[in-house]
Amino acid sequence: MNLTNRHLLLGVTGGIAAYKAAELARLLVKAGAEVQVVMTQAATRFVAPLTFEALTGNSVCTDLFDSAHEAAMGHIELARWADLVVVAPATADFMARLAAGRADDLLTTLCVATKAPVAVAPAMNQQMWANAATQESIKTLEGFHMLIWGPAAGEQACGDVGPGRLFEAAQLFQLVCEHFATGLFAGVRALITAGPTHEALDPVRFIGNRSSGRMGFAMAQALVEEGAEVTLVAGPVSMKTPRGVTRIDIESAMQMHSEVMQRVTTCDLFVATAAVADYRPQQSAAEKIKKSGEKLTIELIRNPDILANVASLENSPYTVGFAAETERLEEYAQRKRIDKRIDIIAANLVGAAEGGFESTQNALTVFWEGGQQQLPLTDKLRLARQFITLMSEHFYARTGT
């Protein structure tokens, strides 16, 4: 199972079954997920936080009023960070407080504050499970569209036999995997370009642009999350490679062109997010250019158009373009889409309040033959996920797969 780059918030409450949560954390991390554990104070009486820290590589959060995190509204940041919240085990007390909308500790606060799906895995004595108040809590949580995973029936720690056992870690892990098993691009071979290119004037100077590469890296991460086999050709940026992505680093437009054309015939999807320099110096000086006269004339020649070259191939992959504009967004984006004969293009304004270069957020207007759609301002990874979901319908309509 592949949970690469998924953000899992694992909540642990105070029941004897808390020991199973440690195995669940191990399985999630092994599958590639980033796991953040939040424990109630009672849970720490059953399993030490150090156990989860060793398994996940992240510090465990236990206190709503932890000054080290709350200066930056840490509980809200965690709530935004999570792709899925899993509370395992979930005690009768925890579920009752959550059903009542209580937010009197860190874990209930996160469950109330997050927009991510919340899955609750009950664990308690069979009589507590059968209690009318507990059953009412379950109905209320289901009415809140929370997922109820369990309980199982069997022998319990207290000696009773009946429903109330926490699902085994392997079963909970399977449920997490199934939750994310959309696999929109499972088996698709994707080639992505990202970042700027640097066109050398001399050994120390270059012509470049402000592209950070964030949108391209977000597209790579979003696609690998959906099962794609992703190769990323990246310009000179310092971003961390998403887990599961094959990265090829280049400097210049000519190097990017060469790497792309070597690989494009074996890919199904080509996504051109890179801000490739349109021109390069006709000659790059072998030594540092020294300051001399009041003016310096540098002759530029045009770089090959990577996106247009890919789109013009006889058996071209599905081609996705990006257009960063400072004005007349629709006009210029549509002209680029038509002139280069690409399948779909995502356009955004740069140098404006809505985001773009050097920003962690962006907004896109997506154009295709006969239609368009706005994707509002949000962080670039969420935007990438929204875009590939939209694009998938058009991809499969053209490829017929």
Describe, in plain words, how this protein is organized in 3D:
The chain has 401 residues and is α/β, with parallel strands linked by helices. It folds into 2 domains: 7-179, 3-Layer(aba) Sandwich (Rossmann fold); 189-399, Rossmann fold (3-Layer(aba) Sandwich). Helix content is 34%, strand content 24%. It has 14 helices and 19 strands. The protein has helices spanning 18-30, 49-56, 67-70, 74-81, 92-99, 106-113, 126-130, 132-143, 169-179, 214-225, 253-263, 306-311, 329-340, 380-399; strands at residues 7-12, 34-39, 84-90, 118-122, 147-148, 152-155, 161-165, 189-194, 199-200, 206-207, 229-234, 246-249, 269-272, 279-281, 300-302, 318-325, 344-349, 361-368, 371-379. The strands form 5 sheets. An 8-stranded mixed sheet has the order 12-11-8-13-16-17-18-19, with helices on both faces. A hairpin with a 5-residue loop joins strand 6 (152-155) and strand 7. The mean pLDDT is 89.
